[in-house]
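Reproducibility note. Readers wishing to regenerate the assembly model reported in the main text can use the exact inputs given here. Chain order matters: entities are listed in the order in which they were concatenated for prediction.
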Amino acid sequence: MSQSGQNIFLQGVRDGIPIAACYFAVSFSMGIVARNAGLVPATGFLCSLFTRASAGEFGAYTLFAANASYMAVIVMCVVVNLRYLLMSATITQKLPPDIGLFQKILVGCCMTDEVYGISIAYKGCLQPKYTYGAMSVAGVMWAAGTASGIAAGNSLPADIVSALGVALYGMFISIVVTAARKHWKLTVAVTVACLLSWICSVCPVVRNIDNGTRTMILTVIVSLLFAWLLPASVEVDDSKVTGEHD
Amino acid sequence: MTERNIFIYIAVTALTTNLVRVLPLLLLKERITNRFVRSFFHYVPYITLSVMTFPAIMETTSPAIGLATLAIGVTCAWKGMGMLAVSLVCCICVFLSQLL
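Running the prediction on these inputs yields the following structure tokens for the assembly.
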């Protein structure tokens, strides 16, 4: 028997709670940057609720503060968020084949690194309601964190702010390691990616490329390399689309 | 210099970001069966997250604290701790290291 829609939504909400907690911590520290760009809690809430991007928003607030052109904001948003192109492309492979246009747009808008991370880990075909459930709590907390950060301003001690800032990385580590410990090929790929990433951050010339672009280029190169060297044995079956290694 | 409107800034940021997310879903209609392409898509998310974490985590405070936080976070996740727990452990590591 298939699960009811409400259950799937609630399951998404449940899995979204840890993400929401992390989002609050991270967007709180981002609120401090937003405040310097002239945002008030209400505008910060709006921007975060509708954008939901960490690196993208950080970049945007820096540009707002510099009174940059709208075109500069567009270019920055595209470049920094290019990885979402790849994420959305992979999520198309995970969705039920009969999904409608409106649902596709909604699922697309929910693609943040973490919500994507749990969506891709969903057993079998992705039920969009699961993603909506997760985003409903995570998105609101992301926006609430930004607003609170703007309101609190610089009143928090610096050591608390830097401790909160690492929450995002903790979340990333959890997603990657949970998958990697089941698949040795992924463990190798991730280790190589980290090494290359470190080399690129210290190498002359390459280190001057901004973080978003470097992430994008490295992701494409390393993923292509490993798809060629260590192809994952991926099932092709509409009822159960999962990526599994040998 | 022209003073720009914060609401237009917000609209531009939100629209552009979401367009990047939605476009592939609208354009890619077929199920991909090619093993190479599927493997590529399988690696992408984890490689992206790894590259975003390392070495950036070393820049939050000092390289040594960043590395220690990473090592502890990876160990906790490897032992099967959940997302929120791993995140909290990392935050506590950084916080405690600043008290030293």
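We highlight two features of this model. The mean pLDDT of chain B is 88. Residues 69 and 93 of chain B are 6 Å apart (CA to CA).
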